[in-house]
């Protein structure tokens, strides 16, 4: 029997048991869809994080409280950075151009009878410049607002859409912890940055935040969540990092482990990239397990098929079919199931990736490598798991097979 005849026979046998064939293919469909979707969405997430961090520019540094080891060990943010540290950096580090400390906390924001939960940021006038987050309307916080602890606020676009669809927000008053704040500005649309939706923010003077909203929580001064720093140029970033680290070690009297960290946007990009890659690899591995499970399903069904078709196998061998013919037919059936399931799974995965790209800010990419790899692996698994049932069928004694069918 030639190869084409074997394919026709295998196809007709699978078509005769449509429900069983479909259920057997389901495992391969799920596995291939998972692999393609996971890799595509993972690459999209990494690309989005890269684009967002690149928006900050290569000159930006972040001074964060606690060492990297300490931040990994606890969910509580260490209280080791204060506003005085930011002022010292601004005054004593020559390779920087701007500093903007900030203190963050989620708060309920009220306007008349409506309310929403938003990220409240206490900061200083240099914040829009460093974070490349410009004011679209009105003005930003200035030095006088800081010195006088003024109750003024600049709001993000989503706050405008939530409260001020028909009203000009400038001059209106919102309430934070039942304290009225006059709106003096509206920020331009920005989107999300590393999980933080900057359009859902309310920015107020850092002094007002400390003295009227959160209170003083550090014995060393006015606590900040982190300090944004802008270097003079790209070539000055390393020097700025070195100078800030030395300055803070002196200020904090550190003799052993640092109680702070200085991260450049490039370092953060590398960290985010490694995390995204690690998650993609892990999820792809888990998706690959479903392919193996699907392969086991193919083997089980093929074993059942061999048992049910004992008489057919015996008759064919009695009529002159060789072990190679029988082996080839069952292997072809296993491969058809695996390849068909793989193709449907890949199409499903591509559809999922496309839908995610439409309904989310991600820009997932459909990798040709992942498609080829997924199809090759599923075909190989089908072939591998189909060998045992095929060998069992090929080794059946025709006389025993015919007698057992009577």
Automatic annotation (TrEMBL):
Assigned GO CC terms: plasma membrane
Organism expressing this protein natively: Crocosphaera subtropica (strain ATCC 51142 / BH68) (Cyanothece sp. (strain ATCC 51142))
Alphabetical UniProt keywords: Cell membrane, Membrane, Transmembrane, Transmembrane helix
Domain ABC3 transporter permease C-terminal intervals: 285-398
The UniProt record lists the keyword Transmembrane: yes
Protein's recorded name: ABC transporter permease protein
Main location: membrane
Similarity field: Belongs to the ABC-4 integral membrane protein family.
InterPro entries per record: ABC3_permease_C, MacB_PCD, Macrolide_Exporter_MacB
Every MacB-like periplasmic core domain range: 21-247
Transmembrane portions of the chain: 21-42, 275-305, 326-359, 365-388
GO molecular function ontology, one term from the record: transmembrane transporter activity
Pfam families: FtsX (PF02687), MacB_PCD (PF12704)
UniProt membrane topology term: Multi-pass membrane protein
Locations listed in the record: Cell membrane
């Amino acid at each position: 029997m030639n190869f084409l005849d074997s394919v026709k026979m295998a196809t007709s046998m699978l078509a005769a048991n449509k429900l069983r064939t479909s259920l057997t293919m389901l495992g391969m469909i799920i596995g291939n869809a998972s692999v393609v979707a996971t890799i595509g969405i993972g690459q999209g997430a990494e690309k989005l994080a890269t684009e967002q961090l690149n928006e900050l520019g290569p000159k930006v540094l972040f001074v964060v409280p606690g060492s990297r080891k300490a931040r990994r060990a606890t969910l509580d943010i260490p209280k080791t950075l204060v506003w005085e540290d930011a002022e010292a950096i601004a005054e004593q580090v020559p390779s920087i151009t701007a500093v903007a400390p900030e203190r963050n906390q989620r708060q309920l924001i009220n306007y008349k009878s409506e309310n929403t939960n938003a990220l409240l940021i206490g900061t200083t006038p240099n914040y829009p410049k460093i974070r490349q987050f410009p004011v679209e309307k009105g003005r930003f916080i200035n030095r006088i607002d800081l010195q006088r602890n003024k109750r003024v606020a600049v709001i993000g676009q989503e706050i405008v859409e939530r409260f001020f669809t028909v009203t000009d927000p400038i001059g209106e008053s919102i309430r934070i912890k039942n304290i009225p704040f006059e709106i003096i500005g509206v920020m331009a649309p920005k989107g999300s940055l590393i999980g933080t939706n900057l359009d859902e923010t309310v920015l107020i003077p850092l002094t007002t935040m400390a003295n009227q909203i959160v209170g003083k929580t550090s014995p060393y001064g006015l606590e900040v969540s982190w300090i944004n720093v802008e270097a003079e140029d790209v070539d000055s970033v390393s020097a700025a990092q070195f100078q800030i680290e030395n300055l803070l070690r002196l200020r904090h009297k550190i003799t052993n482990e640092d109680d702070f960290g200085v991260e450049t946007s490039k370092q953060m990009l590398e960290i985010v990239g490694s995390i995204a890659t690690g998650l993609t690899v892990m999820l792809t591995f888990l998706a690959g397990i479903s392919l193996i499970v699907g392969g086991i399903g193919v083997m089980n069904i093929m074993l059942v098929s061999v048992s049910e078709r004992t008489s057919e196998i015996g008759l064919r061998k009695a009529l002159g079919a060789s072990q190679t013919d029988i082996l080839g037919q069952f292997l072809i059936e296993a491969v058809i199931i695996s390849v068909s399931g793989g193709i449907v799974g890949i199409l499903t995965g591509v559809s999922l990736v496309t839908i995610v790209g439409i309904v989310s800010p991600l820009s997932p990419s459909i990798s040709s490598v992942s498609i080829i790899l997924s199809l090759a692996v599923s075909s190989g698994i089908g072939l591998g798991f189909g060998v045992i049932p095929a060998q069992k069928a090929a080794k059946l004694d025709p006389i025993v097979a015919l007698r057992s069918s009577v």
